Amino acid sequence: MVEQFLKYIHTEKLFHSSQRILLAVSGGADSMLMLHLFTNAGFSVAVAHCNFGLRGGESDGDEQFVAEYCDKHNLAFYVKHFNTQDYAMEKGISIEMAARDLRYAWFDGLLSKHNLDLLATAHHQDDVIETFLINLSRGSGIKGLSGIQPKSGKIIRPMLFTNRTEILEYCQRLKIEFRTDSSNVDTVYKRNLIRQQILPLLEQVNPAFRRNAMKTVGNLHETGQLFQQRMSEIKTWVYSEDDQGAMIHIDKLLTLYPLRTILFELIREFGFQAEQVDDIIDSLTKESGRQFFSGEYRLVKDREYLLISPFLSKQDQVFYIEENCLKINYPIHLSLEIIDRKPDFRFSTHPNVADLDLDKVVFPLILRHWQEGEYFQPLGMTGMKKLSDFFVDEKYSIPDKENIWILASGNQPVWIVGKRLDDRFKITSITKHILRIRME
Length: 440
Hints:
- By secondary structure, this protein is α+β, with helices and mostly antiparallel strands.
- The chain has 3 domains: 2-217, HUPs (Rossmann fold, 3-Layer(aba) Sandwich); 243-310, Uridine Diphospho-n-acetylenolpyruvylglucosamine Reductase, domain 3, CATH 3.30.465; 318-439, no CATH class.
- The protein is built from 15 helices and 22 strands.
- It has helices at 2-12, 29-40, 57-72, 84-91, 95-113, 125-137, 142-145, 164-174, 190-205, 209-238, 250-253, 259-267, 274-283, 387-393, 398-403; strands at residues 20-24, 44-51, 76-81, 118-120, 151-152, 155-156, 239-242, 245-249, 291-293, 297-301, 305-310, 318-321, 327-328, 334-340, 353-357, 365-368, 375-376, 385-386, 406-409, 412-416, 420-421, 433-439.
- The strands form 5 sheets. A 6-stranded mixed beta sheet has the order 3-2-1-4-6-5, sandwiched between helices. Strands 7-8-11-10-9 form a 5-stranded antiparallel beta sheet. A 5-stranded antiparallel beta sheet has the order 12-16-19-20-21, with no helix packed on it.
- Helix 6 (125-137) crosses helix 9 and helix 6 crosses helix 10.
- The radius of gyration is 31 Å and the shape is elongated.
- The N and C termini lie far apart (64 Å).
């Protein structure tokens, strides 16, 4: 097995012998064998152990077991205790997902803090097959069905060359001690149910199921690579990003096939689910304004684009600008100066500059977002106009409207910042003092 281990590292180009590796060790057979193989091969390693506090004294026993092994073999050992159940309840996620989030966040911090190059986990072939079946049951796309890969970012999985049966046999042969997790027999967890009940049934159908499943996962991974190459070409054509978010060109998108698969690949990184895709497609040929939400993002069907931006409620934000203020840096950058009116003064025509009659404004000025039903008098007009109508005329999208700031004097809009002044505050022939506000 040592030769297979070293050969797999070389074949998959997992790491260089000079790199320092952090090993995630639970105390179970798979991670203890991984630890044995790494140390006997002479690689530079440190050990990280997570105590999720889910099995009381048994969890503490696992921690003590790994700690004693590391002390005996003079290995750097890091341990972390987590309030896993509280975190799962707070986030509204499963215990399994909570444990995953907590441990990988901690592992990432350890890599940076201790100048370690890579994280090694003890996933093996059975984990690949179980993950494949779990994702298959969820209706996953090709990425989910492609299985656990040998290397992903800073995570390496050097045990994927072997399976659970071989691991247990090797541990027994070499008398490698390990701990058995009692929760592994609890079929409340999907993975345990698949391991104990579903896989044995599939092997009754075909004794070579595990071997064939690994071949299928490999084939799907290669197919997925071709798919991603094509998606990169499509993304370059229909997709763009700016500081406000992402945009997908609707007319171009509608020429593509298969539309459902392509659209999902474009939006899934923002947390949108496959179940939402059909409704989004249905909106493509309808009027603008329909909105869809993931956990942190909103997708808006606009005239020409699907607009994706972080969903943050800003409507209640209000900022005050006092009379002696010369500059603000948040939520936008504004500089203010007072100018005495001279005969040769020329007001600025730049949209990012507002020249106002100082005597017409009341401090503190208020910087806020627009309000439904609000009116202003656009510069050069004699009548009032609804802000919402102004936005329609200017073809503003929903995110555009929400990102616009209004500078107000009391209850009256003075300046749609960067867009249009209110005529009531303009400079006239009798203006003596000018308030110049510039958006940087």
